[in-house]
Each structure stands twice: as C-alpha cells, then as structure tokens.
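Flavodoxin
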Amino acid sequence: MGALVVYESMFGNTEAVAEAVADGLRAVMDVEVLEVSRAPLLELLDDVDLLVVGAPTHAFGLSRPETRRDAAERVGHAVISDTTGMREWLAEAYSAPRDLPVACFDTHVRVPNLPGRAGHAAEKRLRRLGANVVGSPTSFYVHGYEGPLYAGEAERARAWGEELGSLVAGGTPVR
C-alpha cells in the first residue's frame, strides 16, 4: 500500500502538518491521509509499509474527550476531531502488525520548557503495542491555541516526510 498518515486535529494545524508530511512521503511511496475517526483499527493495517500518526498536544499529552470539548468551547465552534482522538484510537488496538514501521508527530504552542508532547505519548503506546518506531517524535509549532502554524513548519513537515520515506524505502537513518 505504501504509507498511511492518521491525524487528530482541532483547528486544522495538525491536519495541515499531516498533509505536508504526506506530500514529502509521496516522493517515494503512495500515501493515504485519514482523520483518526475514519482510520481502520491498528491491527488491520497489514498492507501498510509505514504508519505516521500525529496529534495536537493537549494538557501535556494526547487529547481526551474533555480537552476536545474545552477546545471547541474556547473558540465557539466545532473542532475537526470531535468524537475520536488518537488516545482512543490507540486504546482500541490490542497490537500493531508485526514490525510495522511507525513515526509520530505532534503540534503544540511554542513555550520554553513546556513538558509533555502528544508525539511522545503516542510513541509510548505504539511501542507497547509492538510497533517498530522509527526516528524520534517530531514537534511542529503553532501560534497560540488555534494557530496558524509558524512560518516554515509546513516545509519542515514536508522535508521530514521525505526523510521518513527514504528511511523506509531505502534504509537511510532519520535524524
């Protein structure tokens, strides 16, 4: 199949990063991008060569139903991933396909020394499920809670996608 990029997004920033990562991956493989509520169960991904997951950082980790509700209330309109988040999608899984290469990213506000990242939380869960995590979780930064992305972040996400694609397709290490 190629790569599958699964994302959770509140205001469109994580979705934009997911699309940029997919653009980079397309240099070496076919890619499908799905919002997390539309993604198949993790254990059903037998034909995927690379899974990339991304989520916004909420309360120092992956969102919960309460933090998604708070996000919608804060801005006064619906959010993109309102029913299912990455936390719930990963919690539904009992295992990852054997040796499935996985990479994680998150979006968050750029605040010095801010603890916790959604990408790290997703990585821990995926490792426990038996996935083969490649590279380190990568963060992409947004202005404030609603964004937009900082200048250059979409380009950085595209380059990261190219690097991931090269790693999986050709064995070049991700830094």
